[in-house]
Design goal:
mainly alpha, Four Helix Bundle (Hemerythrin (Met), subunit A), 6 helices
Length: 166
């Protein structure tokens, strides 16, 4: 059952990831953002299947929740019109295809050269409680700096997208 769920979640994550980049059904950026939310949900399902429950929960709470809300605010505040959206260019598609093919060749070479090793699963080095204590004691300043940076970015987006009253 676990193998079947893995293949289902992986296939859905790949399909939704493709729809984020090249959605043939809609050119609306909100649709792409919603497909990205679905991709993140399927990835969280993969984490749960790998028994990484904390990573699955963080994937949903932080990425699918907070970061995607920020993305949607930016998309909706910018209010792009259809004629202002970027058009697909053939050179960009060809270049992207070449880069993807080169990465596939490199990945195939790395997988081919890697020797299968029957190693024991890694030992658990810490708990969620230890991570929380470390985050809010030793790394409190960087944590707060990132939160202030995100707040400043959101205020900047609001100010940049604000229309002037005449």
């Amino acid at each position: 059952m676990q193998a079947a769920l893995f293949y289902i979640f992986a296939a859905l994550a790949l399909v939704c990831g493709f729809l984020v980049v090249a959605n043939p059904f809609s050119r609306n950026p909100v649709t792409s953002a919603m497909c990205l939310v679905l991709t993140l949900v399927w990835l969280a399902g993969l984490f749960v299947l790998l028994e990484a429950f904390f990573l699955g929960a963080v994937q949903i709470l932080i990425y699918a929740g907070a970061v995607m809300v920020l993305f949607l605010f930016v998309i909706m505040l910018l209010d792009l019109r259809a004629e202002e959206r970027r058009r697909l260019k053939r050179l960009g598609l060809v270049g992207g295809g070449l880069v993807a093919a080169a990465l596939a060749v490199l990945l195939r070479g790395v997988i081919h050269e890697a020797a299968p090793a029957a190693a024991a699963p890694p030992a658990v080095e810490g708990t969620t409680e230890a991570l929380g204590r470390l985050l809010f004691t030793r790394y409190l300043l960087p944590f707060e700096a990132v939160s202030v940076l995100l707040l400043v970015a959101m205020v900047g987006v609001v100010l940049l997208s604000k229309k002037e009253l005449k």
